[in-house]
Amino acid sequence: MSYIITFLVSLIEWAGLISFPLILLGYKYNYYIKNIIIQSACMSFISILLHLTSMSVPVIVGLQIIILIFLFKIGLKTKNLEAIALTSIGYGFYLFLQLLVIELLTSFLQGSYLKLYQMSNFTVFVPMITISILLISCFVLYKNKLQISELRYQLKADHIEKKTKRIIQILFAMTYIFIVLGATVLMADKQVKYSFILLSIVVLFAMMLCYLIFHSQLQKEQLLFAKKYYLDQEQQVAAFVEKLKQNYVMHFRTIEKLNHAGSSDIIADYIDTHELQQMNMIWKNKNLRKGIEALDPLLYSFLVNKRKLADLLGVEMNVNSHISSEEFASLGQIRNISLIIDDLMLTLYDMKQNEKKLISIELDISDTKFIYKIEANLTIDPNNMELGLFDALIKLRQNRATVDMELDPVNILVKIPIL
Length: 419
Description:
alpha+beta, Heat Shock Protein 90, five-stranded mixed β-sheet, 14 helices, 68% helix, membrane, transmembrane helix, transmembrane
C-alpha cells in the first residue's frame, strides 16, 4: 500500500515538474496532457526503482535528468536544446520550491530533516505543499499570459546562435549543480550545512545572472530584427513614392504637351481614361477591425498600413479573417508576408490602367497554425529574381511553414505552424 501512495505522490510531483516549463514557455498545454501523464508515470516508476538502489544522490539526479530529456524528445518531439531547457527549468524550479518548503517546516517544527523524513506523513505532506504552490504558479502564469514565448521560438528555431546555445548549456550545468547541492543540504550535518547553503546561494545567483544575460540577448535580437523590419518598410515606402512620382511626372508631361497643342478635349479624355481625378478609397472591411484589432494589434496595424498603400497605388485589397485563437503573429512572420504583398502591389501598379487590380487576403488563425491565402489577378514570371516575394517564401519554408504557390494567376497558400 505504501508503494502505491509513493507512486501516486511521485506521479503528481513529476506531472507538475513537467507542466511548469510548458506553461511558462507558452506551449499548447491541452495538446500535451496525454504525453505528460505518460511521462510522469514513467519517471515515477523509474525514480522509485533508482531510490531502491545504493547509488549516490548525484548519480540518481543525473540519471533522472538524462531520462527526462530523452522522454521530452520522444513524447513532445522536442529538439536537444529544447529538451535540455525544459528539463532545467522544471527540475530546477521544483527543487527550489521544495527546498523552501522543507526549510520552513524544519524551522517551524524545530527538528532535523532526517528526523522529519522518518515521520509517516512527512514524505506525502511536503510534496503536496510543493505541488500546490507549483500549480498555483502555473495557474497565475496561464491566466495572466505571463509566458516567455520568444524563448520557445528560439529553442524551436532551426538555426540558433552559438552564444544562445552556450548560455543554455551553462544554465543546464548550473541547474544540475544546484539540484545536487540542494539534495546534499537536506542530508548534511549542521557543521557543514551552512557551507552547502552558501554554495547553493552562489550557484542560484549565478543562474539568475545567466537568465538575465539570456533575456538581454533575446531582447537585443528582437530589437535588431524590429529595426531591420522598420528600415525595410521605410525603403519599401520610398520605392512606392518613387513609382508614383515617376508615374505622375509622366502624366503631367503628357498633359502639358496636349495643352501646348491646344487639345483640351483630348486632355479631358486622357484624365478620364487614367482615372487621375479619382481618390481610391475602395477597401473598407469591418470584419478586419472586428476580428483582428482586438486580438492582435500588430497584425491589425500591418493590414491597415497595407490598405493605405494599396489605396495610394490604386489597388483593391479585400481581407477576410477567421479567428478562433488568441495567438499573436510574430514579427518575422509579418515581415515575410509584407514582402509578398508589397511585390504584388507594385506589380499590379505597373499593369495597364484600365485593368482591374485586386489582391485578396484570407487569414485563418487557429490554436495550431496561421493560414494566409493570398490571391491576385496577375501572372508572375518564375524567372524574375528581382521580386522579393520568392526570398520571403524561402524564409517562411525555413521556419517550418508549408507553402503552395501558383503564379498564373497568383495564388499563394502559406501555413505557419504555431511552435
